[in-house]
Amino acid sequence: MNNELTAGLAGARPIDLPAGERRRKDLLTGALSGITYAGAILAMTVLVFIIGFVLVKGIPNLSLDLFETVYTSDNCSVLPAIVNTVFMTALALGLSVPLGVLAAVFLTEYASSSSKIVGVIRITTETLSGIPSIVYGLFGSLFFRIYLHLGYSMLSGALTLSIMILPLIMRTAEEALKSVPMSYREASFGLGAGKLRTIVKVVLPPAMPGILSGVILATGRIVGETAALIYTSGTVAKMAGLSESGITLAVHMYVLSSEGLHIDKAYATAVVLLAIVLVINWVSELAARKLAGKS
Q1: 168: part of which helix (H) or strand (E)?
Q2: How far apart are CA 230 and CA 251, in angstroms?
Q3: Which of 186, 221, 185 is closest to 206 using CA atoms?
């Protein structure tokens, strides 16, 4: 009986639609395909235009004076801002990534999906994701800078940024953990491994490329942030320590453009910032591919 049913299905012909209905479906499919291609072309055009505009305006203004170790009003050196940007990024990620990944592990592996705590955490995470960065800056200024007496410092800025990127890391890490097949966990439990060992040895390695994608997005937001840092880390153009005020590349570019005296240096700073972002994305992509190959 099964063989006869299989043979009948194999020999069945597709249902012929009326000519008018088939023509309408073809037109709808063509229209949707055209809209999709047009949207992709428009997005690529805007991206190429922005990058080309920055490069054309900024590359002629690049010079060795722009990379001197000490900032002056004449050279408008970006080297202190580059060092501060790297330091700020490492500090903010060091504070937020472990907390975000651990929170995602708790929500995915330990907490029940019907728990009220999980619902509250998800609502809070979604709310934090939609808050403008200027609000984070005001909160960091009032809480970290004034209430905790940290002042304008790299630590105040890093704590503010870590709160700002925490929802992004949590959501991406949670989705990466959910993408790991349940059979991996069941096989590990069947071999006698415990819950924690299963998570560390079996679940996390395949999920690392997805977690790293969230870290890449968070890094891009840190590097390009201005509003939250103006009120917390300040605008002092020097290589700053943990408790000192320091300027990042994005804030440096904002200050130069807002003053209106060094627009050419602002374009050059934009080229440097763009190059740093591209390098970070390239290195992260290579790391994600290696992790995906190992997993």
Answers
A1: helix 154-178
A2: 7
A3: 185
Domain positions in the chain are: 18-60, 64-294
The per-residue pLDDT for range 84-101, each reduced to its tens digit, is 999 999 999 999 999 999
Residue written as tokens 């924690």? Answer: 196
CA distances, 133 to each of 35, 146, 261 (Å): 33, 18, 27
Q: What is the distance between the alpha carbons of residues 283 and 295, in angstroms, rounded to a whole number?
A: 18
- Rounded Cα gap, residues 264 and 101, in angstroms: 41
Cα–Cα distance between 292 and 284 in angstroms, integer? 12
- As a whole number of angstroms, the distance between CA 192 and CA 56 comes to 61
Q: What are phi and psi of 42, to 5 degrees?
A: -65, -45
Pair 247, 237: CB distance under 8 Å = yes
pLDDT digits (tens, 9 = 90+) for 60-82: 888 888 888 888 877 888 889 99
CA–CA separation, 156 vs 21, rounded Å?
A: 63
Domain formed by 64-294, architecture: Orthogonal Bundle (1.10)
